[in-house]
Amino acid sequence: xxxxxxEFDCDSPPLAIxxxxxxxxxxxHRHHDCxxxxxxxxxxxxxxxxxxxxAPQLHHPLDWMNAYQDHGLPTEVTADGTGVELVCDDxxxxxxxxxxxxxxxxxxxxxxxxxxxxxxxxxxLHRWAMLSRTAPLSGDAVRALAELHVTVLxxxxxxxxxxxxxxxxxxxxxxxxxxxxxxxGKPHLVQLVQVANMLLTTxxxxxxxxxxxxRLEILRTR
Length: 222
Prior knowledge:
Elements: H1 19-29, H2 35-44, H3 61-70, E1 75-77, E2 84-87, E3 92-98, H4 99-108, E4 115-117, E5 127-133, H5 139-146, E6 151-152, E7 158-161, E8 174-175, H6 192-202, E9 207-212, E10 215-220
């Protein structure tokens, strides 16, 4: 999954888009106002990693919460009022990925997954958070990802988000790839199966995921 020789539709752009393919996608889809056209436009314009244009005007946690919600992410101000948290639901989740595989996956893709460099205090490894659309996982799929020390957050789980242009805390806490503008309930994110399969390929797990009867199941490749 996520490779350019596969077929994609307006709502499911490939995880990796080269500038050459981006030109073709943009020519074919620019009138649709769809996710694939937006993805191609971002590659053509070199938007990777650039902060939101209104970020300098965001001064308080409530400002940042509203900005994240404008980009389709379900967020709340933290209980102590000092920050903003992503609240995973049935539309948005995050994969907590060890820094090495996350960096390898990020670096392979001209169009990267929105990727937050962070180390949540409740996990033992330095991990990055990679946002995707939520999808049900079978027990075997969860175990295959766990072998790579990848955790998929469940609905209701929370992840603290940066509230600054380059909020570098200790540990690092900033966006490598900022989420794109979207609408509530329809986040502009890649499919979970695309992110997971890129990680499984990077981790040489010998398997991939595919949707079967409404959830992601393991397909053994060797």
